[in-house]
Amino acid sequence: MSVETRTVEPGERGKGAATRAAILSRAVDLASAEGLEGLTIGRLAADLELSKSGLFAHFGSKQELQIATVGEAAKQFRVAVIDPAMDTPEGASRLRAIGESYLAYLDSGPNSGGCFWGSTSAEYDDRPGPVRDAVAAAVDSWLGELERQARLAGAAEPERLAFELFAVVMGANSRYRLSGDRRAFGYAREAIARLLGELPG
Amino acid sequence: MSVETRTVEPGERGKGAATRAAILSRAVDLASAEGLEGLTIGRLAADLELSKSGLFAHFGSKQELQIATVGEAAKQFRVAVIDPAMDTPEGASRLRAIGESYLAYLDSGPNSGGCFWGSTSAEYDDRPGPVRDAVAAAVDSWLGELERQARLAGAAEPERLAFELFAVVMGANSRYRLSGDRRAFGYAREAIARLLGELPG
DNA sequence: TTCAAAACCGAACGTTCGTGCTTTTTCGTT
DNA sequence: AACGAAAAAGCACGAACGTTCGGTTTTGAA
User: Can you tell me whether residue B12 is helix, strand or coil?
Assistant: First the structure.
């Protein structure tokens, strides 16, 4: 054992971390459009003007890249959807804020590759493994937050309310992305308002 | 031009048609699990103990195979979900029957590869082309049937009702497939009952 | 300024992909 | 029984896949 201690962990600071962040940012975009299986190391490297092997070395396997991509997408989701709602009081009004920021997130332009979670959770429906587990954990945590807020709002059946909110925003995403039906956003807003209107207080 | 007329069109009768049907049946299963892009000619041929080239000759391109697979899936969907509800009177009770047969279809065992339409419609969110068009047309037609029945049932806003029904069954599918949450079926049934309970008559 | 570690590259691997061409087998009709 | 079309197989191709490896550049601390 060397006497000298490591000052930093590899990949935490320095140039490598910046590259890794750039890779994952682009990976989320690509995976939103092509899926986590369609996410290709060669394509990713070409987009970022890196070599395949140089990019590959950051993760060691495609599976690790996929899992890291799921983590990055979860972080982006928190920043875009959860955080903006954090300054409204917990309960019904925060649920309303989350729903609004989620719809805004979906509607944030067709430039973005669509909802990462809609694509990937359908993709890993029947594909067991660590990647699926990572996706499922992230979605479960998102649904759990909905449920927690529903409980704080005094909902009679928080799990049911969370499920319905989840279904309605996912449905809007699906209708908009596949068929360009923007009316779905309006229907979703109405459904959310109705679901939250039943709450006490 | 030959004087003799063709007695049958190729692929309509005879051995070829049977093979083609077997291919498409398996293709729907595979695509439900792996997606329409993950659907591979080599894998399909190996499963059916055919040669790649022999199978390929039936379609001429992978894209044609994908489109034919979408058509076969639509046929299966009609048989499993629409047809069982055809002997109940149009309107609210048929909507109820469709909802029930759809949930039963989703719940028909984890052996099946999950809902074809959930997987593929998410997959082709942001992937323009004939395959996406075929998927979108099928989903639109399914949603249109919901809307038609909602109108016959006297719904105030048939499009909105159709959307909510669609979202709730898709959401149940997603929750069950990804996280094995069977409660979603119950929540979906309750939501359907509530949505249809608002109907006049 | 030195030097080891970190970051990155280029080339190659074995495999699988979709797709052509050519040949053989199967099968209904005469 | 023989013929011709349909069906399936055999073989090969270029490209892209994930991955490995040896070498080169870049970086940051001593």
Answer: coil
